[in-house]
Amino acid sequence: MKFAPEHDVPVPYMQRTRDYYRALGFEAPYRWAHYDEVPFTPLSKPLAQSRLALITTAAPYQPGAGNQEPGAPYNAAAKFYTVYSDSTDSAPDLRISHVGYDRKHTHARDPNTWFPLARLREAVKAGRLGGLTSRFYGSPTNRSQRVTIERDAPALLEACRADGADAVLLVPS
């Protein structure tokens, strides 16, 4: 058995995020939401009989907001700040240049890795998934746990319930 090369180590994203927030001028270090207990509800029926809602952090393309192509540098101008939805029958033009990801070791050329709507449609056709809700939903990445907990999460829950979701797939980008 051979050891991995010295440079092949986990990305220190937690410290990198703390450093980033400090550079933005925040006095307190970034604190991840961490709970002693996490609610979990098992599926009430098999996935092959369930209607799934897809929630993504990918942003709709904004033509006037600068470079948003795969591999584009971080682009805060492309962020969005309210929950959105669109039809699961559509072919939306979503991008992820507005989020911080490791652009040195990965790329964003395959949208199925961060918005797997096409793969989910295939799962429905193959009978592995009962169906999709009529809409998918976009969840903002606005750095505020308070706003996420008090505004965005309740709006997403309400939309998923209104659309008859039995389960949710949250795909952060």
Topology record:
Blueprint: H1 13-23, E1 51-56, E2 59-60, E3 84-87, E4 94-95, H2 117-125, E5 131-132, E6 135-138, H3 145-162, E7 167-171
Parallel strand pairs: 1-5, 1-6, 1-7
Antiparallel strand pairs: 2-4, 3-6
General description of the model:
The protein is an alpha/beta fold and 173 residues long. It has one domain (46-171). 22% of the residues lie in helices and 14% in strands. The chain is built from 3 helices and 7 strands. The strands form 2 sheets. Strands 1, 3, 5, 6 and 7 form a 5-stranded mixed β-sheet that branches. The protein has a two-stranded antiparallel ribbon with strand order 2-4. The longest helix has 18 residues, at 145-162. The radius of gyration is 18 Å and the shape is globular. It starts with 12 loop residues before the first helix and ends with a strand. The relative contact order is 0.22. The model has no long low-confidence stretch (mean pLDDT 90).
Observed structural traits:
two-stranded antiparallel ribbon; 3 helices; alpha/beta; 173 residues
Distance between the termini: 34 Å
Largest sheet: 5 strands, mixed
Taking all Cα atoms into account, the compactness measure Rg is 18 Å
Structural class: alpha/beta
The proportion of strand residues reads 5-15%
Q: Which spans of ≥5 residues are poorly predicted at pLDDT below 50?
A: none
**Structure summary, number of beta strands:** 7
The percent range for helix content is 10-25%
Mean pLDDT, as a whole number?
90
- What general form does the structure show? globular
- Return the string of H and E elements: HEEEEHEEHE
The count of domains is: 1
Number of helices: 3
